[in-house]
Amino acid sequence: MTFLPAAPNTGIRFRRIDLEARPEIEARVENVVETNRSTTLAKGNTRVLTVEHILATFAGFGIDNAIVELDAYEPPIGDGSSREYCKLIEEAGITPQTERRDPYHISEPLELQAGETEMAVFPHDSFKITCTSADKKGRFTQFFSLEVTPKTWEVELSHARTFCFFEEIEFLIKNGLIKGGSLENAVVVRDDAVLTTEPLRYPNEFVRHKILDIIGDLSLIGRPICGHIIAIKPSHGANCELARLITAQMRRPLIAAQSFAPPPPPAPQKAASGEGPAPVLLQDGATLDAIQVMKILPHRYPFLMVDKVIKVDGNKITAVKNVTVNEPFFQGHFPNHPIMPGVLQLEAIAQVAGILTLRQADNMGKIAYFMSAESVKWRKPVRPGDTLVIDVELTKSRGRIGKAKGVCSVDGEPVSEAEVTFMLVDS
Question: Could you say which of 105, 124, 236, 299 is catalytic?
Answer without folding.
Answer: 236
